[in-house]
Each structure stands twice: as C-alpha cells, then as structure tokens.
Amino acid sequence: MRYPFATISTLAWRNLWRNSRRTLIMLAAIAVGVWAMIFMAALMRGMTDQMVRNGLQTLPGEVQVHQRDYRADPSVVNSMAPPSRGLLAALLEPPVTAWAGRVRVPAVISSERGSRSVTLLGVDPAAELILGSLPEKIVAGRALDAPADRGVVIGASLARRLETGLGKRVVLMSQDTDNNVVDRGVRVVGIYHARLQGNEDRFVYAGRAAVQGLLGIGDAISEIAITGDDYRRVQHWYPRIARAAGDEFETLPWTELDPFLGSMLAVQDGFTLVFMVVVFLALSFGLVNTLVMAVFERVREIGLMQALGMRPGLILGQIMLESFYLLGLGLLVGNVLAVATLKPLATGIDISAVAQGMEMMGMGAILYPALHIQDMLMSTAVVIVLGLLASLAPAWRASRLDPVAALTRD
Amino acid sequence: MSDIRCRNLCKTFHQGGETITALDQVSLDIGEGAFVCLSGPSGSGKTTLLNALGGLDTPDSGTIAIGEQRLEHLSRRQRADLRLHHIGFVFQAYNLITVLSARENVEFIMQVQGVPAKEREKLATGVLAEVGLAGLEERRPAELSGGQQQRVAVARAIATRPALVLADEPTANLDSRSAARLMDLFVTLNRERGVTFVISTHDARVMGYARRLIGMRDGRIVSDQEQQPHAMAI
User: Which of chain A's termini has less CB crowding within 10 Å, N or C?
Assistant: First the structure.
C-alpha cells in the first residue's frame, strides 16, 4: 500500500499545480474563508469571555456556598456561619485561587434627595480584592480599607440619582433576623465606576463587620464566593468544595447560579460551529467546481491510468488527495493569516462607539479577541470533513469513468 | 498467463440512432509468444477486439479466456489487476501521464504494483536505455518528440515483463524511421523474451513484421494467415 500511496500522492500534488492560477485562486478563497472562521470565532469568543467574566464579577465567584434557602429568600434570615475548619482547608487547596465570605442583603439607601433599593454588600476588602469582585475603578475618594470600615462606597450612577456625593451622609436601611427594620447613617467615602452601569446603581459596598453590626448577626455571613484558575473547569473542582461544606449548605457552580450565563459557552460553541459550516458551504461550491474542471481536463489521462491497471479506488484516492492538499494548504495559510491579524489586536478593540448597546449584553467598551486553539481545530475539522465530503462526488465520477470512452474522448 | 481464446464475440454500438456492429461472432485463438497483427480499415473492429482482449471493454456476448481466467467472470477491479500484472498497453496517442517524467512514467505501473524504489529505478533506467532513450529519463512528455513518447510508452509496457502486449496503431503518429525502430524493438522483445504481441494496424509496412496476420472487416475476421515476416519494408 505504501508504494501506491506514494504514486497517487505524487500525481495529486503535481496535478494540483497543473493549472497553477486556478489552484492559487481556490487556495486564496479557502485561506480567506478559514481566516474569517477563526477571526470571527476569536471576536465572538472574546465577547463571550468578557460577558462571562463580567457576570462572574457580579455574581461574584465561580462557586458559591449558601444556606439552602438563601437563593429563594436572600435575606439576613438565611445567613450562615463562617467556614468550618474542613471547608477552610478545602478553600486553601488549588485550583482555588481566592475566596471571600460576605454579607449580601437587600437594602434601601436614602439621601436628602431620594432613595433607591440596592444590594448591600458587607465585604472584607483584602479578600474581595483577590477575588476580583471589588469595583474596578474608584473615581472619587477611596476604597474600603478594612472589614470594620464604617464608610460606604457607592456607584457614580447611584450618586447622580441620589444627588449625593463624596463625604455626604446617606442612610442605609435593611431588616434584622427578627424582621425589624434597622438603619444607620453612614458617610460616602468613595465613588466607583463599573464597566456595567447597572452595577453602579445596584451595589453598595460597606465593611463586613460594620454591616454585621447593623444587622445584628454577629460573625454570620450570607455567602462564600470562591474562584479558581479557569472558569471553564469549575465542574472539575466544585464537588470537592461541596463535600467539604456539607449537605446543610448549597454549593453551586456559576453555571447553575446563573443559568443564562452558564448557557453562553454552549451557545457560543454552537454559533461558532454553525458560522464555520456556513462559510465553508459557500466555499465548497468553488472547491467542487475546481475539482470537476480538474477531472474534466484529464479524462483521457484517467482513462489511461485505468487501462494500465490502476484500480478505481486509487483514482478516487488520487482526486481526494488532491482536494486534501488544497484544503491543507488553504488551512495553513488561513491559520497563519488569522494569527497574524489577531496578534496586534490582543490589547483590545475599542468599541466605545457602541458600548452602551453592548453593555446590555454584559460587555464593556473594549473587546478583547480570544484566539482559542479549539477554534482553530474546529475550523480545521470543518474544512477537512466538509471539503472531503464535497470532493467525493467528482472523485467518485472520475473513478467510475469507462476507460475506453475516456481514452477516446475528444 | 497462457493462450488467448475468444469465442463468438459480439459487440454493437449505438450512434445517432444507428446500430454499428463492431464485433460479429469473432472467434480466435492466439498462442503464447505469438506476434499477431490485426489489419483492416477504420471501423473494422480491430480496436474493439483489442480493448475486449485487454478487459477494457466488455463484449455483448461471447467469451474470452486468457490462460485460465475468463474475463467475463472478473470484476472491474480484478480486470484492472489482470492488466496491471499481465498485460502491457501501447496506444496510438495520449500514452503518457503528462505530469510525470519519462522515468516516472515507466515506473508508474511498477509503483502501483508495489515494486521497491531501487528496483523500480534500475528497471526503468535499463528499459529506457533498451528503447534508446538513455539520457532522456528526466524529461517530461512535452519535452519529447512523438517517437520518443511512443518509445517511453513501449518501455512502460514491457518494464514489468508482461506476457502480453496489446498495441493499438502504435506507429500511426510516427515517421518511417521511428516506426521501423519501434517495430524492430517489438520483434526483439518477442523473440528474446517470448512476449506475445497483438498489434492493430492498417499500415501494410507494420503487417510485414507479423508472423500471423488477421484481417478484419465489418467486425468479422475475413482472413487469418501465418506468414514469414518480411520486416525490412519500413
């Protein structure tokens, strides 16, 4: 089999360059198609990455541990004790990179001019900083400096709505465990800017100990937020945390905490595959045409090969190899092009002109294309599988030619 | 490989509403080591008979046996294998694969047969020298004259030592000198290697080389005679 393969391989390669202009045009079409597949996949992947990361920042964390009823009723009634020794040991093991216990309760914030319903977050600033769940940018004042910090940090948008500002006093109001209204006047020590304006309106940050004091819950917390090294791999390690936390608590990965966010990856993979298939289907017409022409031009030669004793299978193999070489070259050039054009864009593409619209989808003003090896492999698989399928018809016809008719064709 | 036996071969073609009888009850025996010429005007059925003998074409009725093998019982793939291992073909024109050099064209069949590279190269170089093409091994068909191309085709046909060579008007596109050299080569191969030759031609000078001359007309054998070769006519 080795020698016949060498024969058809040589023939396929040389026949490819028999009409070099036609081959180069087809090659360019495949390369551009492959480039488009990978480039668009990188943009879509970048968008999804950003949406998921922003979502995880808001959640926050890739895994959360709560009281079992907390998600149905996220009030102070369903708070939990700080992590046990066993859970603490699990939280210190890789791939966990950070964790934070936080109080998270519905509250109302009031200024002299108005009041808004918000989510009050009692945080440990040092732990939350590593978790990456603190506001990205403090635009006025300072960040919280300790769990006992008695000030609050509010979003710029909320400050505008409440017509309040840095250094002014606001009143925080919530409920204690007995459903009594508790309130406390606090000073705005910082104003933050978030990538998503909705978050600026929604979250108010205060020191954890200060909030625990306001609510009268001792050292209890609402949730433990945990993050690992790769949000895509959370399914591998979250069961270990669940076991350490015990059955009395609910331990969920982000894909279940936010099913919409969780479905994004699968949806995006599906979109990418469909996009690649559509692009290649358009290309395949050109490919089939090229092969049909290539076969048509050398009908006599194919007849001669058959007359000399070349089996139909080898003729079919030769045309398929010709297609494979063309597809392989197109893939190589397309992949190189994609890497070359995506590399300079790694620092991000400014889409601030449409940022407000994109914000509704959970995106920021800079889009970071994400070139994933799996997309390059997916495009390779699509091109090779569909390309060879499309080549089967002309290759089959060539292998079934009647040698006498082929040899006498004008 | 052994004798060729054909019995009652019939083949018709339909062209423009007309039925053309290419072979009409042809029965024929050709012994091993024979040097046979099929003669007759265009349309007499020579090429159809050659194609049927080589398993390229299937007769509508009748039987062909080459040695113990009945061609009508062989599949498309088995007939391809028979041609590959036992039959050499030389056609009138378009004999070579244009993207391969003269040496590669000669090696082609051996490569498909699975002959190792070194052996192939040695055999191809030797047989090309035998047909007078030493030094032209790496030339592509477009760089060779018509006569040289035909000799490459002969080299390819005999390189694998087939028992039978079927040649369809092999000298039709050659000048007298090239034709004479080619026929001399056929005679030498027939005499020294015992290769059976069946050559279709309507060139009287080529017929002079044959030891057996079969005349055809309208798909029938009209004459079949042994003769003393009088080759020097070309």
Answer: C
